[in-house]
Automatic annotation (TrEMBL):
Pfam families: 4HBT
Gene Ontology terms: cellular component: cytosol
Name the UniProt record assigns to this protein: Acyl-CoA thioesterase
InterPro entries per the UniProt record, alphabetical: Cytosol_ACT (IPR040170), HOTDOG_ACOT (IPR033120), HotDog_dom_sf (IPR029069), Thioestr_dom (IPR006683)
UniProt keyword Hydrolase present: yes
E.C. numbers: 3.1.2.20
Single GO MF annotation: long-chain fatty acyl-CoA hydrolase activity
Similarity section: Belongs to the acyl coenzyme A hydrolase family.
Length: 123
């Protein structure tokens, strides 16, 4: 699945406060951005509130450095009665030299549609 056939769901540039002890962007920050992007896609599919219920295997392929722009691409790959699987691909690129984006991680997030009481509801 290529990012070329999708529009970016979320684009963000991490700040110095998002660095880990090694000087790269903290993995938890990346995971948080993925949850936000996945939630945007899932809420559109569900036409209402959703909750994250699981994250399938995820691997950090390449570190994100300060001064890079992080682009998150989402795609709904499976829908059930109350839940959906959202594929999230994360790319980073330097904001100043317009280098070719490089993939930094990917994962499938599972979201469930919820009602005003936080209970599962039909899609």
């Amino acid at each position: 699945m290529s990012i070329i056939d999708r529009e970016v769901t979320l684009r963000v540039s991490p700040m110095a406060a998002d660095l880990n002890i090694n000087g790269n962007i903290f993995g938890g920050w990346v995971l948080s951005q993925m949850d936000i992007a996945g939630g945007i896609e899932a809420a559109a599919v569900a036409k209402g509130p959703v909750a994250t219920v699981a994250i399938e295997s995820m691997q950090f392929i390449s570190p994100i450095n300060l001064g890079e722009v992080v682009s998150l691409y989402t795609k709904t790959i499976k829908k059930g009665k109350t839940s959906m699987v959202i594929k999230i691909d994360v790319y980073a690129t330097s904001w100043h030299d317009h280098s070719e984006p490089r993939k930094v991680t990917e994962a499938n997030f599972i979201f469930v549609a919820v009602d005003e009481n936080g209970q599962k509801r039909q899609l």
